[in-house]
Specification:
The chain is α+β, with helices and mostly antiparallel strands. It contains twelve helices and six strands. Helix 2 packs across helix 9. The relative contact order is 0.10.
Length: 516
């Protein structure tokens, strides 16, 4: 039995490793396709790209691993069935459960490891990849002074070079530089017939050594309009001039800056629990403050009540206020209650029009305040749901891996096809079905229409009966994909109808012959 366990594990290891890295490669290519515009032309070094790929690959494992388990399980048991090895094991008295047992133990161990991986490695990878990607995308494109084109990528300058030559294109001809740093247009410009281009200060500055040129500058210190018309204009001729241009916006020194740290996808379970408690406290504080403010604002103490029978008036006033809050009242009933409320105010001290105007203004203010509070609370409620869903995702991730195995292994034994043909098609269809369910449930969970628990566990629970059914069918050698199995009842029903029709026809013919 040890040899059988070893053989089953070896048969599973090769397809699993191959499919895992293949799926991971396709997901990384999808990432590049999404961010290709932000990465091209940034002058990234080879090690920066490798570092980004390293972190991105970690964050893509939760999507690649279930598909790899599903696909490799179908391929492994499909190969065993196609080569009649599975039939030989069964004929020797080894059940399918016994054949699957070493892989079941492997899946249990893998589920534990994937939980710790999802809880510690993935949040750290998300943290590093998001910060690195943000710092890369905010970098300006690498400096590339093309011939005959004005380059405006350097802040405050517009540079045109007619021709470049030399081994490193360091020699330039017919140079035009417009300096916009004054903020008042092209107040300073430089032209030169030739020059040399080099980097200085460790790449922080672009050093332009210009020969045989002119510098034009307009003084813009005049405040009065009539003085601006006769402002001085300076033209300076030079045989050699050196211009330093700041390239700090192009350096990659800040490529490792950490700008994001409190995102729920970058936290482990302990950090998520602390964050949820903090968010819940803020949510409850806002709710308490809202209740207090509403009670303090919805007061009519500033409005004088008729003092003829003040206690009765206040009681009736409060009752009618409550009546107005009932949604089932008709408009006429609400109008009648409003008139009753207005009758409690002393017309001699405050007119009813003033009462209505003050009430409308107060209602508008409270409506605006209610809108802001509602928006804030909805955001916090959604944020709390995201944090809770992230906790459940870490547990559900391990469970999904086990479910995918119990779907793939018996499915491969049933379809009896190995390789990358039919197993790939079946695995992709099943995984797309699961992925669509997962995305839909996540969207409903964030919107508050589905609890965080079911938004993460629901898709896995839906697939569980299919795994149990397929395992049951595979152990009994059921031809689940045989079309005759499903059409046989229909054929029997159609044959029964045809037989009854023939019997009726024969009975009718017999009756006619007897009558004759």
């Amino acid at each position: 039995m040890k040899k059988l366990n070893s053989y089953i594990l070896k048969s599973y290891a090769s397809p699993f490793v191959a499919t895992f890295f293949l799926v991971l490669f396709f997901l990384i290519m999808q990432f590049f396709w999404l961010y290709v515009d932000d990465l091209i032309g940034k002058g990234l070094s080879f090690w920066v790209i490798i570092k980004l790929l390293y972190y991105i690959s970690f964050s893509l494992v939760p999507m690649a691993l279930p598909l790899a388990i599903l696909l490799s399980s179908i391929m492994t048991f499909g190969n065993l069935s196609e080569n009649y090895e599975l039939a030989a094991m069964k004929s020797a008295g080894v059940s399918l459960y016994r054949i699957m047992r070493p892989l079941i133990v492997l899946m249990m161990i893998m589920a534990v490891l994937t939980f710790y991986f999802s809880n510690y490695a993935v949040p750290y990878a998300n943290f590093k990849s998001k910060n690195l990607l943000y710092n890369i995308t905010k970098q300006k494109p690498s400096l590339n002074l093309k011939e005959g084109i004005f380059n405006t990528s350097i802040p405050g300058f517009s540079i045109r070079i007619k021709e470049k030559n030399g081994e490193d294109d360091q020699f330039i001809k017919d140079v035009i530089i417009y300096d916009h740093n004054s903020g008042k247009g092209n107040s300073k410009s430089i032209t030169a017939k030739k020059g040399e281009m080099d980097l200085a200060g460790g790449g922080k500055y672009l050093k332009l050594t210009l020969f045989d040129g002119y510098m034009f500058e307009e003084a813009s210190n005049m405040k009065k309009k009539k003085d601006k018309k006769r402002q001085p204009f300076t033209k300076t001729q030079f045989s050699k001039d050196i211009v330093y241009i700041d390239l700090s916006s192009f350096n990659m020194d800040n490529i490792n800056d950490e700008n994001f740290s409190n995102n729920y996808a970058m936290m482990n379970i302990n950090q998520l629990d602390v964050a949820i408690d903090s968010l819940q406290i803020k949510y409850n504080e806002t709710k308490t403050n809202y209740d207090k403010k509403v009670r303090s604002k919805l007061r009519f103490s500033a409005l004088e009540i008729d003092s003829t029978n003040e206690e009765i008036a206040k009681t009736n006033f409060a009752k009618n206020i409550k009546l107005l809050e009932i949604d089932t009242l008709t408009e006429d009933e609400k109008l009648l209650s409003t008139n009753i409320i207005l009758s409690h105010f002393n017309d001699n001290k405050r007119k009813k029009e003033d009462v209505i105007s003050a009430s409308i203004n107060q209602a508008r203010k409270m409506s605006d305040y209610l809108g802001e509070v509602k928006k804030t609370q909805n955001y916090r409620r959604e944020n709390i749901a995201k944090h809770i869903m992230e906790i459940h995702r870490k547990y559900a991730f391990s469970y999904v891996c086990i479910v995918m195995f119990f779907i793939g292994a018996p499915l491969g034994a049933i379809i009896r096809k190995g390789g990358l043909g039919m197993p790939v098609v079946v695995a992709i269809v099943i995984f797309i079905f699961y992925h669509v369910m997962s995305l839909s449930a996540e969207k409903l969970g964030r919107a508050g229409e589905l609890s965080p628990f079911w938004s993460r566990w629901g898709p896995a629970f839906i697939l569980t009966p299919f795994g149990l059914l397929l395992t049951r069918k595979a152990t009994t050698d059921s031809a689940i994909f045989n079309s005759e199995l499903y059409f046989k009842p229909l054929y029997k029903f159609l044959g029964l109808l045809k037989r009854k029709k023939e019997e009726k026809k024969k009975a009718k013919e017999n009756n006619e012959s007897n009558q004759q």
